Amino acid sequence: MNPTRTVVTEETWRQATARLAAGNATLLGLWGDAPDVHMALIDERSGDMTLLTYVCSNGKYPSVGAKHPAALRLERAIRDLHKLDAEGSPDARPWLDHGTWKGGAPASYQFLPAEGEGLHQIPVGPVHAGIIEPGHFRFTANGEHVVRLEQRLGYVHKGIERLMNGRTLAEGAKLAGRTSGDSTVAYAFAFAQAAEAALKIAAPPRATHLRALMAELERMANHFGDVGAICNDASFTLMHAQTGILRERTLRAAQACFGHRLMMDCIVPGGVARDIAPAGEASVRALLVEARKIFPRLVELYDNTASLQDRTVTTGIVRGDYVRQFGAGGYVGRASGRAFDARRSPGYAPYRDLEFEVPVLDAGDVNARVWIRIREVEQSISLIEQLLDRLPQGETIVPLECDGRDCEGMALVEAFRGDVLVWLRLDGEGRIARCHLRDASWFQWPLLEAAIEDNIVADFPLCNKSFNCSYSGHDL
Amino acid sequence: MRRTLFESLTRGPLTEPPPAPDQAALAELARSVDRAARTRLGRSLSIREVDAGSCNGCELEIHALNNAFYDLERFGLHFVASPRHADVLLVTGPVTSNMREALLRTYTATPDPKWVVAVGACAADGGLFARSYAVTGGVKDVIPVDLHIRGCPPSPTDLLKGLLALLQAASRRG
Predict the structure, then answer these.
(1) Strand order of the sheet with strand A145-152?
(2) Which of A141, A239, A264, B88 has its CA 20 to 30 A from that of A409?
């Protein structure tokens, strides 16, 4: 896919913002490329994507976030990383910049006020109690009930986008694959597609099938792990132990096929770095047999354990209008009625030739997010079977040829937690001039703040795990 | 639930025999582990994991140590929620500038004697993120490191080998 990028006037920029605010388009991304700011939108009914550029004068552009809150954090990140100001933004605080970089912003940070009789604050993080990524949560509670949660992220900002500048595509693919380790396949997939769109080449059919095989193994491994982890946060450890076995078996099958448990660096621009190992197919088929035997039993266990249901049903509800406004993807969106899946629309190879359903529920609670994941495991099993049955013969990679001109490409790939956007601009030698990576978490993290409201503090781990947003993917 | 539990009883354990401790790790530890500390701790270590900017790949494999196949707790090793309860800090990531202060505070909050294990390619020297404006470039540049477990990410078996070497060094009576 390669939408044409249009340089627009202030008026057209404001019209696009109005379209977003009115719900007639969904924001896919907003990023800096000084002195320009780019905005990507999608019309969800048609799947059409639009890419707009506003050329800043005096380092300023009209704020999108002022009318459309989903853009607020993106604008704060743009200011931190590119020194471009969103004029009229209601939130001028830094976001990724904690004042620790050379020439960074001052370190003091004002949390939003929450005032009232009997309110107290609970600061959590950045170092959390479990084996998880760092971030800060500021809870304001009235007794047991959370009246406000405010997140502060950016602790794992590594400067990935600037590291990309001037790199070759091969180096860029490795960096992209380490944006969020749990989605390394999805990131490498999206990066490769963006590079191929820019160079106007296509990966061979065998490569796209192997990519999808990796992507579905990754999705399944993450869903197995997270379904168990959510139950574990409700102290139901049996489920955690059982799904942990399925996750481990999935990673071992991935190792047998592609030589790496998480399948890092297996997808490269032009195709795949390695073909499936001769013994790989048998190990994946054995995994599917095991998953088909064990997983339904665990689903039944989940569904029939009243003490567990008591914790997940009606907990952490995300409103449908919020997921549509924020364009929240993945199970967060689909559990609240937003039927968006990048594999289906805009769609990409090889999914157009495969049969699968996109499960959607309306309840929007922790339970609904668990059920979306359960249904997606079932779909992934079916997809993997189709991919193995229909795996085409032939080449697994095509050479990258650059015609000496600057070029651009964009891709939207469905990771396990939602759509990943990659936009890439290459110089005449095929080196990266600018690469933007937008994790699904950007549009999910803010909704977690809304989901926890009026829930008890003890249910936060459940809500958080049912979102499982990426810190690294968000912080870049 | 009964069927699942019953099958767990009859199937036999999935837990695999432990790998031999990593020899290179033992050599690195022999230089750093204090004799008095070894005698005081015995064969049990509490581990506090600190993500100092990893991509979360290392965390996934550290998590896997708790699954039925690797079963870390059988060795007397277990993860704790607070640095104040920990003997070992397991640190991942290239130490982002934004996490440097938090890592230092976590280290200070951990009582002596303590060990630091740097996990993954990033924790060793910054890995792919070295030389970024936003990273320090390796755990040893911020706090003293006793052992490096390399890999991107290291597999659970690699992690187990390193931790077993640490356990052996820690429990060898001086």
Answers:
(1) A119-124, A136-142, A145-152
(2) A264
pLDDT of residue B174: 35
Q: How far apart are CA A262 and CA B155, in angstroms?
A: 10
First to last CA, chain B: 49
Does the pLDDT of residue B31 top 70, yes or no? no
B12 to chain A, any CB pair closer than 8 A? The answer is: no
Please give the average per-residue pLDDT across A215-229, as a whole number.
Answer: 98
Q: At what angle do helices A366-389 and A460-467 cross, to 10 degrees?
A: 30
Residues of chain A with CATH 1.10.645.10: 164-443
Map residue B150 onto helix, strand or coil. coil
Mean per-residue pLDDT for A70-78? Answer: 97
Which pTM does this prediction carry? 0.94
- DSSP assignment string, A72-102: HHHHHHHHHHH--EEET-S----SS--S-ST
Return phi, psi of residue A110, to 5°: -95, 115
Kindly report, residue by residue over A107-132, the tens digit of the pLDDT.
688 999 888 889 999 999 899 888 99
**Segment holding A21, helix H or strand E:** helix A10-21
Each residue's pLDDT tens digit, B123-173: 999 999 999 999 998 999 999 999 999 999 999 999 999 998 888 777 653
Give the pLDDT mean for A251-274. 97
User: Which residue is closest to B109 within chain A, CA to CA?
Assistant: A127
Side by side, the strands of the sheet bearing A418-426 are A407-415, A418-426, A432-438
H helices within A110-264, ranges in order?
Answer: 160-164, 169-176, 184-199, 205-232, 237-258
For range A38-44, the mean pLDDT: 95
Query: B133: which chain A residues are within 8 Å (Cβ-Cβ)?
Result: 101-102, 159, 162
Q: How far apart are CA A277 and CA A255, in angstroms?
A: 9
Class of domain A5-87: alpha beta
Per-residue exposure over A53-75, b if at least 16 CB sit within 10 Å of its own CB, e if not:
ebebeeeebbbbbbebbbbbbbb
Between helix A205-232 and helix A460-467 the angle, nearest 10°, is 180
Whether B75 and B163 have beta carbons less than 8 Å apart is answered as yes
- How many residues does the structure list for chain B? 174
Burial class for A168, CB neighbours closer than 10 Å (0-12, 13-18, 19+): middle
Residues of B in contact with A181 (CB under 8 A): 54-60, 153
Q: Who has greater pLDDT, B20 or A216?
A: A216
C-beta atoms of A155 and B135 within 8 A: no
With cut-offs at 50, 70 and 90, classify the pLDDT of residue A1.
Answer: low
Mutate to test the interface with A, among B4, B62, B98, B100 (most CBs of A within 10 A): B98
Name the one residue in this structure whose structure tokens are 């490096």: B148
Structure confidence at residue B84 as a pLDDT band (50, 70, 90): very high
Q: Is the dihedral of CA A387, A388, A392, A398 positive or negative?
A: positive
CATH of domain A164-443: 1.10.645.10
Residue with tokens 């600061």: A123
Pick from A222, A234, A184: which is nearest to B64 by CA?
A: A222
Q: Does B63 touch chain A (CB under 8 A)?
A: yes
Location of each CATH 3.30.460.80 domain in chain A: 5-87
User: Which positions ≥6 away from A457 have C-beta within 8 Å?
Assistant: A122, A139, A141, A144, A145, A146
Q: When comparing pLDDT for B170 and A74, which is higher?
A: A74
